[in-house]
Design a protein that fits this description.
Blueprint: H1 17-20, H2 46-49, H3 56-67, H4 76-82, H5 87-99, E1 103-109, E2 115-121, H6 131-136, H7 167-178, H8 180-183, H9 191-206, H10 211-219, H11 230-240, E3 263-265, E4 272-274, H12 282-287
Antiparallel strand pairs: 1-2, 3-4
Helix pairs in contact: 3-5, 4-5, 7-9, 7-10, 9-11
Length: 292
Amino acid sequence: MDAQHPNAPVLTTSRTPDEDHPQEQPLAGVVHDHVRHTESFTVVGNHLVQHKEMSLLAIGLACYIQSVRQGTSVDIKSLAARFPEGPTRIAAGLRELEKFGYLQRTCTRTSTGRIVTRTVSRNRPGHSRGGAARETAPRRPARRADQEKPPSRKRLPAVPQPSYPAPALLQAAVDVLTGLRRRDPRLLLSATDAEHLAPGVAAWLEREIAPTAVRHALTENLPDEPLIRPAAFLAHRLTAQLPPPPPLRPPVPSAAPEPRHPLQTCDDCDRAFRGPDPGRCRDCRTDRPEGA
C-alpha cells in the first residue's frame, strides 16, 4: 500500500498568461465581455461570420440554419414566416450560401412520386464527415469517351419581371404556382423552379390579371404527351402570352374648396362674421326681417 502524505503541499493550478499579464482594453472599437457557454450554443467558424464576399443576410441565414435541428424546414416560405425579410431577400441569401458551398439544395422524388427539396447545410465547405473514408476507398475507373454521360440540367428560360417586386406580390405569385398541380399533377414544381417562375407570374398580377385567370392561361390546352420540363413549359407561356399593361386611368379631379370670405362686422351686434359683403350676421338676419 502506498504511503499517504497528508502534510504534502497542495499544488496550485497554473495561471494563464492573460491572468498574469492582463491586457489593456482599447480606447476605441469593440470590447468583448464573453461568458463561457455550457448549453444551447452553436459553434460557427470565423470563415463564415467574417466572410469577405457574402452579405450580412446570407451570413445570418447560415448561422440560423446551422443552429436548428435536423428536419427543420428551411425553405423560402418557412424562413420568410420566421424573419421580417421577405421571400425575395431570403431567396437571394440562400443563393449566396449555395454559391460559396455552405448550402446545397437538390430535388428528389419520394416513393409516392412527390418531388421534394433536400437541403444540406455545411458548416465548413470543402470538408465532410465522410471525407476520410472516401480518400481510402478505391478509385473508380475512368469513364471512357464512348460511355454515356449523365444528362445535365438545362437552365430555365427567362421570365418577365415585375416593375416593383413587392414581397406580397411575389408570395401571391408563388401561391398561384403551387396551386397548378391541383389542375394537372404534371405541373408539380420544385421550390427552385417556383422561385424562378414567381417574377413572371408577378408581372401578370401587376397588370391587373386575377390569379384565377393566370392559372387558366397556364393550364388550358395542355399537350397530351408527358411534360418533360414543366417549369420550362410554364416559363414559355408566361413570356409568350404576357398581356399588355392596363390602360392609364386619368386622375379623378378633386372638388374645389369653398371660398373663404373676409371678416365683416355686423351692423346690429358688432360681432365679426365671414361674408362676401358687409351687413348683418346670420343670427341678426334670422331674428329680424330683411326689410326692418
